Amino acid sequence: MEFVLIILSYLTVAIIAGASPIYNVMTYGARGDGKTDDTKAFLNAWKAACADPRNPYFVVTGKGGKIYLLSKIIFEGPCRSSLKFLISGGLVAPNRVWTNQIDTWIVFKNIPTITVLGNGLIDGKGSIWWDCLSKNQCRNAPYIMEFMGCDYLRVKNLNLKDSPGKHLVVYKSDYAALSGLKITSPEDSPNTDGILISDSQHGTISYSTIGVGDDCIAIGPRSYDINVSHITCGPGHGISIGSLGKNGVEDNVEGIHISNSHIFNTLTGIRIKTWQGGAGHAKSISYENINFTSVKAGVIVIDQYYCPELNCPNKTGNVAISEVSYLGLQGSSVSDVAIKLACSSSMPCRDITMSEVSFTPQQANIRLQSYCINAQGSASGHVTPQTPCLKH
Ligand SMILES: *[C@@H]1O[C@H](CO)[C@@H](O)[C@H](O)[C@H]1NC(C)=O
Ligand SMILES: *[C@@H]1O[C@H](CO)[C@@H](O)[C@H](O)[C@H]1NC(C)=O
Ligand SMILES: *[C@@H]1O[C@H](CO)[C@@H](O)[C@H](O)[C@H]1NC(C)=O
């Protein structure tokens, strides 16, 4: 399927390229030698492409194995027409600590209907940052790529690796469709989420392979109607919703569907995480047809006591979780607690449903169990381990 998508997208390029003007970064003075900073050439090519009303192509050619060194760069719209941004060559970040702010290396801002595609490798040069963070010499590590204000965004077939922080962020962009992505960072790289989507509605993420040091996919606050399917995730922290309600804020998430995926060698499998003291709701969430292998700390997790620094005081109030369904899930758990529904005492989880859920222990000598507090709902069909808080 992935292969078919790749072929299709190249056919599209070949057909449309005949009619559309091309803005090749080489024409604007890029060197593509991996050493010269090509940021200025990219910005000049962008300025011209963005002003063209004929649906142009912005082309980062890969011919001859070109790799382009870029500093922080912002591609900003609105543009005169709908652009295709083709990345066939490699992009590489400076191999030094270049910011101490919360920052992003490559930003696409206010460019509705842009399509970013190509199979060039985008290398965030993260290792120097991970080292710096581990020694407490850095506080923030930048993201590789962020889209903000890009409604009807398409992102196809990009390869991202070794981000200092998160890899790809979609923010305030409705009707975004991401597919065919390949994202990799080492399992022990800190906070290197694969994809974060927030403040966006009607989005899809599909046919992608993600292995990172944090969430493969995180669905953040103010996300509505987001479908995630055909994802291969591992290593990492699985596919997560949240965290929500940090510092007492109201966060809402609704209409999230995660299906037809494989999650392996991850910390958790599918998790919803909220902070004590928060407000708002997370509802109408479904998980369907997902396979798991060797999940270490809970395959199904609702954690309303989320506290990564382990020093959170107890607070009343929480994000209300309801209408969460788990259907057709199977696989292996390393920990004995395979299902963990740790819901808030002030805001119990309502309408949790499970059907055809079956987990087996990774090692024969452990017995799987479920942990439940403040969770209500029902189970039907086969559910193992037994989850007595759900009425059968
Ligand atoms: C997500 O899937 C649901 C159920 O199939 C569908 O109703 C909805 O339109 C889909 N949303 C998007 C953004 O594709
Ligand atoms: C999950 O595993 C089952 C049995 O091996 C297989 O039939 C099914 O296609 C798999 N589903 C996914 C989404 O990988
Ligand atoms: C929070 O509440 C839990 C359970 O009621 C209790 O075990 C824990 O000691 C409390 N923690 C603090 C910091 O008060």
Automatic annotation (TrEMBL):
<dbReference type="GO" id="GO:0005975">
    <property type="term" value="P:carbohydrate metabolic process"/>
</dbReference>
<dbReference type="InterPro" id="IPR012334">
    <property type="entry name" value="Pectin_lyas_fold"/>
</dbReference>
<dbReference type="Pfam" id="PF00295">
    <property type="entry name" value="Glyco_hydro_28"/>
</dbReference>
<keyword id="KW-0326">Glycosidase</keyword>
<keyword id="KW-0378">Hydrolase</keyword>
<keyword id="KW-0961">Cell wall biogenesis/degradation</keyword>
<dbReference type="InterPro" id="IPR011050">
    <property type="entry name" value="Pectin_lyase_fold/virulence"/>
</dbReference>
<dbReference type="InterPro" id="IPR006626">
    <property type="entry name" value="PbH1"/>
</dbReference>
<keyword id="KW-0134">Cell wall</keyword>
<comment type="similarity">
    <text>Belongs to the glycosyl hydrolase 28 family.</text>
</comment>
<protein>
    <recommendedName>
        <fullName>Polygalacturonase</fullName>
    </recommendedName>
</protein>
<dbReference type="InterPro" id="IPR000743">
    <property type="entry name" value="Glyco_hydro_28"/>
</dbReference>
<feature type="active site">
    <location>
        <position position="237"/>
    </location>
</feature>
<keyword id="KW-0964">Secreted</keyword>
<dbReference type="GO" id="GO:0004650">
    <property type="term" value="F:polygalacturonase activity"/>
</dbReference>
<keyword id="KW-0732">Signal</keyword>
<dbReference type="GO" id="GO:0071555">
    <property type="term" value="P:cell wall organization"/>
</dbReference>
<feature type="signal peptide">
    <location>
        <begin position="1"/>
        <end position="19"/>
    </location>
</feature>
